[in-house]
Amino acid sequence: MIRSVKEIEEAPEFKKLVTSRWVMAGILTLLVFITYYGFVIMVGVARDTLSTKIGVATTLGIPLAVLVIVISFVLTLVYVLWANARYDRIVATLNEKLER
Predict the structure, then answer these.
(1) List of E strands, the chain
(2) Closest residue by Cα to residue 23 from 89, 87, 73
(3) Cα→Cα distances 94→4, 9, 55, Å
(4) pLDDT of the chain along its 100 residues, tens only?
(5) Of 28, 68, 75, 99, which sits most exposed with the smallest number of CB within 10 A?
(6) Residue 62 DSSP symbol
């Protein structure tokens, strides 16, 4: 049985779903901003440090730039694992409850 939008929005499961999604999105967004803007600030402020040679032709900035990309992939993986383990389960529970 399909219920009204107001009933769905007032359901505790729906509120939990929305809250958990916003919390996870906020945390991951903050981590991405810290990573990207931290690197950009380092490029502007610590140029000498980033230009330190760590090999024959490689500077410290190159592995740090790669690390920024790797962190982005890891944060995406964290979100996917969280969504598959928790978020989708709450959505399924809410759908079952609303269909009754």
Answers:
(1) none
(2) 87
(3) 14, 11, 55
(4) 556 778 778 888 888 889 999 999 999 999 999 999 999 999 999 999 999 999 899 999 999 999 999 999 999 999 999 999 988 888 888 888 777 6
(5) 99
(6) H
